Amino acid sequence: VKAILAELADPYTVDKVEKKNKLKQPKTPFITSTLQQEAHSRLGYNAKKTMTIAQKLYEGVDVGTETVGLITYMRTDSTRLADNFVDDAKQFIKKSYGANYVGPGSTSKKKVKNAQDAHEAIRPTSVTRTPEDLKPYLKRDELRLYKLIWERAVASLMKSATVEATTIEVKSNDYLFRVNGQVLVFDGYLRVYSYEETKNSALPRLNEGDVLNLLDVDSQQHFTQPPARYSEAKLIKEMEELGIGRPSTYAQTMETLKNRGYVNLVDKKFAPTDQGMLTSDKLGEFFSEFINVEYTAGMEHNLDEIAKGQKVWYDELKTFYDHFIPMLENAQENMEKIAPVEIGEECPECGSPLVMRRGRYGEFVACSAYPACRYIKKEKKEEEIIQASTGVKCPKCETGEIVEKKTRRGKLFYGCNQYPSCDYALWHKPIDKKCPNCDSLLVVKGKKEEIQCPNKECGYKE
User: Fold this and answer.
1) Under DSSP, is residue 171 helix (H, G, I), strand (E, B) or coil?
2) Is the pTM of the predicted complex or chain greater than 0.90?
3) What is the pLDDT along the chain (462 residues), one digit of tens a residue?
4) Which of 43, 121, 45 is nearest to 77 (CA)?
């Protein structure tokens, strides 16, 4: 870096100025996977919470004189919109925002693998029931999700936004510097969809050949970073692209990973546990033919063909068991059995050695004579365990409090004191203030103690 800085010298000459208009197209209306992804990124909801609220909106809400289903069926893999909704929405857009905001129609998108298209996209049952109109009747979380669905469906039928993009290239010796700027010319669908924004970053008016004066050089060195851990939104998107799972199973898959102790959620990212890594290693070792994405996606395809009558279920099941049974027998015979570790204490009920076992909520001490003896050593009561309180209420269960904790390896983190009934956790110390963009708890990071949002998809900083 120092050698490059030494070679930089006047003159700095504007080598190229390029301006062109770019269209920013609206996204398609929601399917199950994209609703779960967007609700996670924009609202901070996990997949289970999103689907629970969506179910309530679908089944019906009391809006004064009647109970009305506010959205269409929320388990779908189709971006198709009903013709009557498209017509009504275009009339609404024309009346509310002007004819120049009406788009050509529902935006198209390549169908995901194994899509069944049994239901249309997730949309409001009536475009005229605006989020503002329903504010008196919906709870806060319900209103936020309905607003997201309503805006996405309406925006999908509006015109693209237009951005004037400018690129300026400046030369110094053999080095080229490039800067990009943009200005919003026509807001289009962004007039409605408040969850996206295009920041204006206007550049000074320059012409090719202009000579510039150097004021300062900000040199930065970056190193390759390991891939980021999966958030729920990112994992659901990956599953969708690989053709794994169904709209009805995404949320349950996320919950199963957590409930079985395979992962923990830290800063809204999945972190594998020792149990999760051991399970993955052993299944991959003894059942490699089945434990891979290609097999799972292929199975989804075969199930679709069985449903269509193109394949016989009995033949497919027999083929599976012909391969699976020998693998299962081999695993039962050759998979290493990990004996429980004795802790040097005797069971107070039967005198057998006490051992360390692993359950859904982590390790615990129990009698080695199980199931003949079912003694389990109780841990210290919660009030006897010293945990430094942050004074911040848990945003997930809304009853617990965020306290300082340590991993088994001694790393400090912050989690709800209601664990294991609530698994909310963060790597950085939270403060009693929420992000204005995504509603996550703000945290204090770094030596400078900067206040920022832990949700990387949000990126808010103070």
Assistant:
1) strand
2) no
3) 567 777 777 788 999 999 999 999 999 999 999 999 999 999 999 999 999 999 999 999 998 888 999 999 999 989 999 999 999 999 999 999 999 999 987 544 545 555 555 689 999 999 999 999 999 999 999 999 999 999 999 999 999 999 999 999 998 888 888 999 999 999 999 999 988 877 888 888 889 999 988 877 777 777 788 888 999 889 998 988 888 888 888 888 998 898 888 898 888 899 998 888 988 999 999 999 898 888 988 888 888 899 889 999 999 999 999 999 999 999 999 988 777 888 889 999 999 999 988 765 567 899 999 999 999 987 654 433 446 778 899 988 888 899 888 776 567 888 888 887 888 888 888 998 888 888 888 998 876 788 888 887 777 888
4) 121
Q: Where are the domains of the chain?
A: 2-24+162-205, 32-155, 232-331, 339-379, 386-452
Active-site annotation holds for 73: yes
CA dihedral 203, 204, 206, 210 (to 10 degrees): -120
What are residue 71's phi and psi, to 5 degrees? -135, 165
| Candidates 2.40.70.10, 3.40.50.2300, 3.20.20.240, 1.10.290.10; CATH matching 32-155 | 1.10.290.10
CA–CA dist 207, 202 (Å, integer): 15
Q: In this structure, what DSSP letter does residue 352 have?
A: P
Q: Which of 12, 58, 73, 175 is catalytic?
A: 73
